[in-house]
Amino acid sequence: MEDYPRNLLELEKRFSTEKACKDYLSALRWPDGFICPICGKGKSWRLQGGLHLCSICGKKTSVTAGTIFERTRKPLVIWFRVAWSITSQKHGANALGLQRAINIGTYKTAWTWLHKFRRAMVRLGRDRIKGRIQVDETYIGGVKKGKRGRGAEGKALVLIAAQEDGDHTGRIRLKRLAGVSEASLIPAIKELVEPGSLILTDGWAGYNSLIDNGYRHEIIRRSVSVGDNLLPLCHQQANLMKRWLTGTYQGAVSHEQLDYYLDEYTFRFNRRMSNHRGKLFYRLLQNAVNIGPTTYGQIAKGGVRGPKRGHHNI
Fold first, then answer.
1. Which one of 41, 143, 292, 305 is separated from 311 by 20 to 30 angstroms, measured CA to CA?
2. Residues 159, 175 contacting (CB under 8 angstroms)
């Protein structure tokens, strides 16, 4: 049974202590009871401070060990407030706004926490979308001189896979590409879309081997009625994603960090119909206790915002 607060008042009332937060994380991490990460056994004693002592191998385990919360010096109460702030706002939160709204410390800390949570927005073993899937690519980046369309330089190339749900969009998947060749496009589609699905694309030659790879393939030809908008769901997603990046983050997203912003956009879009924002909070924390820790150094790669000298912000 999914268990989550329905509003901010419920959140603050329920998660006002470290014990309450640890108990919640423990239930998310071990829904069927504690499992020792060392020996894989399920027998333990609960110690003071929320530690588990395995009765088989004798090792102590914290509920935060091996998660994004590992070795945190900040109370889990604050982590929960940050998770709520991220998920309760329709368009998300940027580091500066988060720093101002919650007593989280420095801008660097706020930025790092946001990226830790972004890494928890993709569920381990996530399923592939299936059915009728529109597929196209888009370039993300500032206005630059030179070639436009496929082959544009200095911009990030992103594959969009949008599931048709009548005239509307069902679920989506996004993936950054190295190029528009068959060698880049086909592996990306195989990662995102279930074999047997009907893939709708334009006439680009990079998609020609889809049938050989277990997909049905339909090429949407240019027509007077459709005009240039051959794949409307992909076109819509490209516009929404770019507006989201510009509006929430003022375009200050480096190429090095783009993958995680794509994960955040996907997480939000695919859960846009949730009755309660608390369900997003639940899903985020559920993922957060099932992925490994990430350090600031691993995230930043040389700078708070990520870009190195000579790299372009998006």
1. 292
2. yes
